[in-house]
Design goal:
The chain is an alpha+beta fold. The protein contains 2 helices and 10 strands, in the order ββββββαβββαβ.
């Protein structure tokens, strides 16, 4: 007689497909960024964190590629250096964050709707 095995599958992989595209932009001095953070690039090519009003996120158009400390962003800003950002491709919506904080269930729908305009796919991956 066989046993039934029940397990939960959890994915923490940010990128979940092909066709990822990156660009560079200038970090805001003294701000820390986490891999997977949704960010906005303004008309001066400066990266800022969007904010929530209720469950709606202000404009965002990119995803942070790698952790960036406050010291790194300050150094980059002082030396006119840029940081890499994902600007296109498929990503796991359960892994993206805003200012290092995971999204609530209610926030996910709003963020996914805006992703369509940005040519960024925020997918619900099986197991999440």
């Amino acid at each position: 007689m066989g046993k039934t095995i029940t397990e939960t599958i959890e994915s923490r992989q940010l990128i979940v497909g092909n066709g990822v595209r990156t660009e560079n932009a200038k970090p805001t001095s003294g701000i820390a960024y986490k891999r997977g953070d949704l960010v906005h690039v303004d008309e001066n090519n400066m990266v800022t964190h969007p904010t929530f009003t209720g469950d709606k996120l202000s404009d965002w158009d990119a995803i942070v590629v790698e952790d960036f400390s406050e010291d790194q962003s300050t150094y980059h800003a002082a030396n006119n250096l840029e940081m890499p950002l994902y600007v296109q491709g498929p990503f796991d919506v359960a892994v993206v964050t805003v200012n290092g904080v995971s999204l609530t269930t209610a926030q996910i729908d709003s963020v996914r709707a805006q992703a369509l305009k940005n040519k960024i796919e925020l997918r619900k991956v099986v197991g999440n």
